Amino acid sequence: MTAAAGERFGDRIFRLSLAAAAGLILLAALALAVQLSWASRATWAQFGPAFLWGRTWDPVAGSFGALPFLYGTAVTSALALLIAVPLGVGSAVFLTELAPRRLADLLGFAIELLAAVPSVILGLMGVFILVPAVRAVEPELTRTLGFLPFFRGAPYGVGFLAAGLILALMILPYITTVAREVLRTVPPPLKEGMYALGATRWEVVRGVSLPYARSGIFGACFLALGRALGETMAVTMVIGNAPDISASLFAPGYSMAAVIANELAEAAGDAHLSALIAIGLALLAVTVVINGLARLMIYRLERRA
Amino acid sequence: MKHFPLAAVILLAAPFARAASLTGAGSTFAYPIYSKWSDEYHKVKPDLQINYQSIGSGGGIRQFTEKTVDFGATDGPMTDEQIAKAGGKVLHLPTVMGADIPVFNVAGVDELRFDGPALAAIFMGKITNWNDPALAKLNPGVKLPDLAITVVHRSDGSGTTYCWVDYLSKVSPAWEKTVGRGTSVNWPVGLGGKGNEGVSGLVAQTPGAIGYVELIYALQNKMSFGSVRNKSGKFLKASIAGVTAAAAGAARHMPKDYRVSITDAPGPNSYPISTFTWLLVYPQNPAGKGAELKGFLRWMLKDGQAMAPALGYAPLPATVKAMVAKTVETIQ
Fold first, then answer.
1. B128 and B49 co-located in one domain
2. In the predicted model, is pLDDT for residue A302 greater than 80?
């Protein structure tokens, strides 16, 4: 009797402690939102929602607007996805479908290693290698693609383009690793069936592997986007840190995470501090919305499949 | 035996419990000298431990206001509003000085002379090319190329920036009106680099760039830098002697609370882009703390000052030292 009761008692303890652990996560997220809202209330009271589309950031005059930072975060993250998604999914397909086993293992290991590189190291690499390279390439881009507004302006090297490239490098291993794992779950009989019907490799990848792994790959992309949105150190080292909105990718910009990291420690005035925390709240909101959209999209894809 | 663990804890904790401690927080600029002083003073007075966290001047002021630290440290003086929030009575004690210097990247040019109006015009985006007549006039005999100027400033809030824009505000009414003073400002033009190393890195990489860094950083990295015309019309390259001279020049009009900017100070040898860094102390302190603070500050003025130049800081001139010594004695 005692043994059974003890077990049941142990089970209850176990269940309760797990529930508490899960609840704590929810509580932490809620507390974060509440604390950020509370600490930034002065900014919302002063500027209202117009804070989100204000374009001036003047700590001396006490005039604050978040648009240049929202814009910079959006542009650099989008650029990073644009570069990293085709590359990441492509290399995942290569690793699972085409590469010889030993090469696939070696490459897989290298990619996982890339994911473990601290962002400040990537930022340093960005400053010393990527930025000079971008500066050298920019005049060439202007000459050939200068008819587009994205490729005009002075070749500083630092700017949206450099930030987008470094972010692409940072999120590439996430996309590749997760996409590879998902592609590995495609049941071999499905693929073998296609081959038996005389399909080419391309047709199998397009017709079976990618559709089967679709929701997982989308998940990988959104995980990567989440990292790109919040990345601070590497971005601030190469983006140029100027709160300007410019169509040109060569122009210096700023991101939400970068301005918080740069100005929080020395923010002397309460208004300045409050505005920085308001940016933090906006960043949290953007992350939540994007994750929500990702959930919705994956849910829909799964239902259709 | 049952009480063994407790006894052990008491025995282990005893040396810590006996030692008094002072905690401070603030300026990152002054961190090397404050941590040196804390080490050296601990040798003189082993029963006192001074802990200093370099969290930035803004954070230092905040923690000091909330009384979570015994002293604060800042590169820019507290505003009247901030002092009112801290209870109305705060002592600003100047400890050492630093300076900002202009660094530039113009191929084939190692030496350049600037004056306040030219620097303000460059940082406002009004002078955009190195062959501008205003720069040519300041640098007779130097062949300045037709090269666009790229302005580089600090992206992180910093006392270095405060000193630089404080100087520009003094020499250019237009700057004071449109940009003003602060640890972070709304820069009219340019790229932002994080920290001294970020600025100097961008300047070194970008042809035609101009930026500003701390004198200490430039000395440690053996960088070449420009000279600046001071109030007496003399072109000076920043040096520790020049910074001390600026403080001595400003001392004649030193306000009682020491909240004075020593940029553009009078005197033939005063380097114009110099600044104090201050310790923030309350005149009334909790029991025991006041005496410890007083002891440390006395030592800082008597023995600590001599350690400043080796770390690249300018020591206080004798006049200011005498004034601060009197203020230290009023601490309770």
1. no
2. no
Q: Are residues B209 and B69 in the same domain?
A: no
- Chain B environment of A60 (Cβ under 8 Å): 179-182, 185-186
Q: How far apart are CA B116 and CA B212, in angstroms?
A: 13
Sign of CA dihedral A224, A229, A233, A234: positive
Chain B CB within 8 Å of residue A271 CB: no
Sheet holding B191-193, edge to edge: B48-53, B20-26, B71-74, B274-281, B91-104, B209-214, B150-154, B191-193
A272 contact B CB<8A: yes
**How far B95 CA sits from the closest chain A CA (Å)?**
20
Average pLDDT rounded to a whole number, residues A126-135: 92
Contact criterion met (CB < 8 Å) for B150 and A154: yes
Q: Single out the residue of A169, A159, A167, A168 nearest to residue A137, CA to CA.
A: A159
Q: Name the residue among A56, A131, A266 with its Cβ closest to that of B158.
A: A266
Per the CB < 8 A criterion, the answer to whether A241 and B155 are in contact is yes
Tell me, yes or no, if A5 comes closer than 8 A to chain B by beta carbon.
no
One domain for residues B140 and B237: yes
B94 and B117 fall within a common domain: no
pLDDT-based confidence at residue A305 (cuts at 50, 70, 90): low
| Closest residue to B185, CB basis, from A60, A127, A252 | A60
Q: Given CB atoms, is B32 within the 8 Å cutoff of chain A?
A: no
The dihedral over CA atoms of A16, A22, A25, A28, expressed in degrees to the nearest 10, equals -30
**B59: domain range?**
17-98+254-261+275-328
- Asked if residue A119 lies in contact with residue A255, where contact means CB atoms within 8 angstroms, the answer is no
Amino acid B1: pLDDT: 41
Helix and strand totals (H; E) in chain B: 13, 11
Residues B142 and B157 in one domain: yes
Residue B115 falls within a domain, yes or no? yes
Burial of residue B271 (number of CB atoms within 10 Å: 0-12, 13-18, 19+): buried
The CATH code of the domain that includes B71 is: 3.40.190.10
Average model confidence (pLDDT) across chain B: 90
Q: Do B118 and B94 share a structural domain? A: no
Query: Do B61 and B110 fall into the same domain?
Result: no
The 10s digit of each residue's pLDDT in A226-274 is 999 999 999 999 999 999 999 999 999 999 999 999 998 888 788 999 9
How do residues B19-66 score in pLDDT, each as one tens digit? Answer: 689 999 998 889 999 999 999 999 999 999 999 998 888 889 989 999
Under 8 Å CB-to-CB from A147, ≥6 apart: which residues? none
- pLDDT, averaged across chain A: 90
- Tell whether B203 and B139 lie within a shared domain: yes
pLDDT per position as a tens digit, B282-308 = 999 998 899 999 999 999 999 999 999
- Does the distance separating the beta carbons of A157 and B206 come in below 8 Å? yes
Number of domains in chain B: 2
Mutate to test the interface with B, among A124, A266, A273 (most CBs of B within 10 A): A266
CB contact under 8 A, B191 and A61: no
Residues of A in contact with B205 (CB under 8 A): 131-132, 135, 157
Which residue in A242, A258, A267 is closest to B190 by CB distance? A242
Q: Per the CB < 8 Å rule, is B180 touching A263? A: no
Question: What ipTM describes this predicted complex?
Answer: 0.83
Strand partners, B213: B101
The verdict on residue B282 lying in a domain is yes
